[in-house]
Specification:
The complex is a heterodimer.
Chain A: H1 23-35, E1 39-43, H2 47-51, E2 57-58, E3 64-66, H3 72-86, E4 92-98, H4 100-104, H5 107-115, E5 121-126, H6 161-166, E6 172-177, H7 181-192, E7 198-203, H8 207-210, H9 217-226, E8 233-236, E9 239-242, H10 244-250, H11 260-263, H12 279-300
Chain B: E1 12-13, E2 27-31, H1 41-45, E3 51-53, E4 59-61, H2 71-75, E5 81-85
Antiparallel strand pairs in B: 2-5, 3-4
Classes of the chains: A alpha/beta, B alpha+beta.
């Protein structure tokens, strides 16, 4: 499908409360184009709870249920059970949570829903911080990144949520990025047509949180994939496939860009460059990514 | 619009739930229709959905709600959209 084949209808209305250049609204527009109007969305505390705007109005043109931070997947399980009881099979249930609500706070509800084989799509938009509460560190924050709770840079590396999900052996799991609309829409459409639990994670570069200019949102996502800091893959019935540039990087057909290309535009890494270059931590970031890809090659590259 | 008889706080969809967000704008995107090649990249990437797509795939910008982030200008491959400061005119 080319861009011109995508539906013109918008389920996310204009005049919402998102920041200018918000990646979550780019993601929401793409996801809702793929899912269509027959969707019920479950949203825990995250930026999207703010994007919905103020009572008594909402900017979502589909039913949305707001729920506590840790309960996105549990709430979606309840909605799905109610629909099943009513015999409504034409409605998609989607949970849409941030990385805080997925990696840290919501992981037990998510793991439970995946284990119960709930028929829903769990979408995590990962901006690598708790941005709604004012940029705190989360389990997805990369090493050495500044947040308001890690003022001199985070000391730990991020966890690989995708691989935690793969351990549940669900029918479909994927990782994608808002900078690749075709990739996002094809993965969401595919997930919509598969019964059982589905997990999709979307990288969402956040201008205020990552401290870059708001017109660079899409470019940052692209650089993250080009540098290997983020990867595009899908796993259907335990068969792992890498997509797009990530496939070429995995097969060593193109070398990934140095990770410095990605982090030098982000203010959250600026303490690595001034007053003087912090070679030790820059090397540690690059080594982490190189090791990650080496491990991907060992695990998923078919000979 | 259908109202539901539920005893909980229930919001109803409305365009411009936060008012005319175009007033947030500092830089304004200006579209040059002659340069536009109708690739629709600005339309798909606009975080706000403020770039309207017409039937012939040409685009127009809705200044009532455009927040002026500049993603469209940054993503336009043919530089058909440029950003200029509100109230100023570039030659």
């Amino acid at each position: 499908m080319a861009l011109k084949d995508y539906p013109v209808d918008e389920c996310l209305l204009q005049g919402n409360a998102s920041c200018p250049g918000c990646p979550a609204t780019i993601g929401l527009r793409l996801v809702l184009k793929a899912l269509g109007k027959k969707t019920i969305m479950v949203v825990p505390a995250c930026c999207t709870a703010v994007i919905e705007s103020l009572y008594p109005h909402t900017s979502f043109d589909i039913p949305v249920m707001n729920i506590a931070f840790e309960a996105a997947a549990a709430g979606a399980s309840g909605v799905e059970a109610a629909l099943r009881q009513q015999g409504r099979t034409d409605i998609t249930v989607a949970a849409w949570a941030g990385d805080g609500g997925t990696y840290d706070i919501g992981i037990q509800a998510l793991s439970g829903a995946l284990e119960r084989r709930t028929n829903f799509i769990y979408i995590c938009y990962n901006n690598q911080i708790y941005s709604n509460t004012g940029i705190q560190r989360s389990g997805a924050t990369p090493y050495a990144a500044w947040t308001t709770t890690t003022v001199s840079g985070k000391n730990e590396f991020r966890k690989e949520m995708g691989e935690i999900i793969l351990a549940h052996h669900i029918p479909y799991a994927a990782q994608t990025c808002i900078s690749y609309p075709e990739d996002v829409i094809s993965k969401i459409t595919k997930a919509k047509n598969i019964p059982g639990p589905k997990y999709i994670e979307i990288l969402a570069p956040c201008p205020p949180g990552w401290r870059f200019s708001m017109d660079k949102t899409v470019e940052m996502g692209r650089l993250a994939v080009d540098s290997g800091a983020w990867s595009l893959w899908e796993c259907e019935n335990d068969v792992m496939t890498f997509n797009g540039k990530s496939k070429l990087i995995l097969e060593k057909k193109i070398p990934p860009k140095p990770v410095e290309e990605w982090i030098k535009y982000q203010g959250r890494f600026s303490h690595l460059f001034k007053p003087q270059r912090d070679e030790e931590r820059l090397k540690a970031i690059q080594k982490y990514i190189d090791d990650l890809w080496e491990r991907y090659r060992k695990c998923y590259l078919k000979p | 619009m259908k109202k539901y008889p539920v005893e909980t706080s229930l919001s109803y969809p409305k365009k411009g739930a936060m008012g005319k967000t175009g007033s947030w704008r500092v830089f304004k995107p200006i579209l040059d229709k002659k340069k536009c090649v109708k690739c629709l990249r600005c339309w798909i990437f606009c975080p706000e959905g403020s770039i309207h797509r017409e039937k012939d795939d040409s685009v127009s910008i809705d200044y009532d709600y455009c927040k002026g982030c500049g993603v469209c200008a940054n993503e336009c491959n043919v530089k058909a959209i440029i950003m200029e400061r509100e109230g100023e005119k570039k030659k």
